[in-house]
Amino acid sequence: MREPRTIAIFCQVLDNYGDVGVCWRLARRFAHDGKNVTLWVDDLKRLQRLRPSINPGSAEQALDHFTLRSWSDAAPLGVVADLIISAFGCRLPEADLIRMSAVTPAPVWVNLEYLSAEPWVEGSHLLPSPHPRWPLREYFFFPGFTQRTGGLLCEPDLLARRKAFDVDTRSRFLSRLGIQPPTGSKLVSLFCYPSAPIASLFHMMQSGAPVMCLVPEGVTALAPAAGETWSRGALTLKGVPFLEPDEYDHLLWSCDLNFVRGEDSAVRAQWAAQPMLWQLYPQADDAHAVKLQAFSALYSESLDPHCASTWGSFSRWWNGSQHATPDWRGLLNALPVLKAYSYAWQQRLASIPELASSLIEFARQIR
Prior knowledge:
It is built from 13 helices and 14 strands. The chain has about 375 residues and is α/β, with parallel strands linked by helices. The protein has 2 domains: about 5-140; about 160-350, Rossmann fold.
């Protein structure tokens, strides 16, 4: 059993900021534990939106105590590392596979899969896939919500920082963004794909209890620009800047309800211990609907049945189902129960192995 000290992570950006967000967090998490980490990304402009300090034209640069490198084509990269992570099934150049197969001991090669609550994930987690030409094995590694998966990515101090985010800290954070929620209003954050029924949501929000909805710039043209505010009926729409990831955590912690999209923001919303609605990455074959059904069943299995029905129906509608009826007022009324449940869910997730630690422990066993 040998400790993996060098780690290479490869990311081809498909899902806007979700893929690169996960890989950046993972690289930073490993670097925090003293690992020598290199993150290869094929679209540094997407990462720059999350980390504005980087230079997207640079082939190599330092970022958050790891090395960031541009992955521009299929040319040999000269990769040598104890643990090699192909994020979300991305393919490595053939020359690097040959190089990896010549190293003794061979590196541990992991395909970090997308997050899913589907039951088959537990049976596929850690399965090996022998390479058809070279003496290499790629192992399927699934993040997940149960003990029989790789768990979710979480910094060691995240929950302590979340707990320390009190009313006064929240007020100071919101003030820095120019946010002054109307008295008695619910604060909602909205981060979604263009396919979401945004116009219908805003129409619903105009009736009933007062709501201030915070929309990061670039999410939808139906919201005001950053710093501007619109009011329609019970709804106040506020444009906010596109925040760096740690600041986005603070936004999630500050809101009574969070609409999130993709994998990275969904995981952060669950660690936030606030009510959430997750828009999964839309897929043409409706595979996202199956994933949503699996997550909803697992997430709400201990939730009050009435609240579970309201939340589940709204989730299906938000993800494009034509057979679900959204009840906005019912969802607002359910927020106190959902708030308490969100904390219990956060604690449940914290009781299973954490993703980065699980990857290191697996690599130790293989080596």
